[in-house]
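re: ur question from earlier - yeah i can do the single chain one, its not a big deal. heres the input i used so u can compare w yours
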Amino acid sequence: MSKAKPAVSEGNGFPWRELFILVIGPFMAILDGSIVNVAVPKLMAVFGVGTDQVQWVLTAYLLTSGVVIPVSGYLGDVVGYRRMYILSLAAFTLGSLFCGLSWSNTSLVVARVFQAVGGGMLVPISMGMLFKVVPRGKMGMAMGVWGISAMMAPTIGPTLGGYLVDELSWHMIFLINLPVGLLGMFLAAVFLKETPLLKARFDLVGCLLCGAGCFAVLLALSEGQDRGWTSQYIVTLLVSAFFFLLLFVLWELQEEQPMLDVRLLANPVFAASLLTTAVVTIGLFGGLFLVPIFTQNLLGLTPTQTGLLLMPAALASGLMMPISGRLYDKIGAKPLALVGLSVVAYTTWELHKINLDISTHWLQMMMVYRSLGMGLAMMPIGTAGMEAVEARLSGRASAFNNLVRQVSASLGIAFLTYVMTKRQAYHFSWLADGFSWSSPVAYGALQQVKQALGLPGDSALAVFSLAAQRQAMASAIADTFVVSAVMVAVAIPLSLFLGKKGKDARGG
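and the output i got, formated as tokens:
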């Protein structure tokens, strides 16, 4: 056992300095996940590649981070959370430099893998260390401030990324990480204390099984929509993932020093927290990717304009997170989760009213109200589960928590994209039935368009077909918000299983 100085702050002082340092890494890592998306068309033009090739710039980061998350808790316990935080920041920053210097799509994909090794560990390592630095009675406030990074970064990313790509260069979406990363490493090296080290044997078999299972399921979720969910490739990946993860669970249950302790699921509060987080994350991703699709593809807004439209929502969630944290320390998770999730479910349901003539101000305000509910609910749900676990297991619990979030986010995008695609095909088929020369209702309208625009019959029909496609997509997005609202509503009764206070669940 190492004689490292205890990382928990002495006395009643709140460790604001440590908290600020531990926010830097997760904010960068989460921001990078959304900032790159807006640069995809630019990268396709610069490198002369198609969508199938450039997609690996995003997929490689997702897969790598998913594989390294499970091992982060073990490394934090054995190497030290301070050291691992600095090493993760270094890997992420160096990977960002390599990305900015990339000369081809292949070199960029390789650099993204290197970047993801650090980026994937930053969030669980930071969260794990936070539970060792902050006194348990003040975790609500700490997680409220820490959670600002997770709530605001995905919204700020497209705005910042759009500006950097439009006004400067695509290289800057990666190079902007360098000064922030170097600052974070310096502050961590100077001000953070090392956590006590644990002696544990590396669970190689568990690491390989979990890594293979996570890789297979994340790859299937990222490519299922393009390849087809019933294709042999996707089915093979999903079946392989199932057996890898089943073997992983069986192995971990008999392992004395497991890499990812599945026995934590025996804690009812922690299990309820993970299940609620998974269901809500799937539902919440409706707003994160459906609204940009609607505003850019149907309303014609640029990524920067879309980011500015969503910015008040990001600020609202950021404002609510510390308030939620203070309330959590006083009244616990259950009432906050119930009220917050109810607000999210209602506002997500209201978003099914969107159409091509919708007011952008109404959309903006609805997203603000939705974000207020998210800011009120999400931090207590996660913190209640983490506080229900013994302090010595907080690193492993953090890795478990973030792995569930990663898989749930990918599942949410895949599932809601599937719903949107199917509903779009349904609505277009229904609308297209009326757009033909044989339709008595449409014939007059087609003749008017033909004469007004001087178009031949086929071109007039094409105009109506394009209008039908736009209307079908708008209706499909509206339908998908209904599904998203149902997912959030399902999580409301699950939150009843959260204890009043995390410490109550531990019996202390």
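Confidence is low (pLDDT under 50) at residues 1-11, 502-508. not sure if urs matches, ping me
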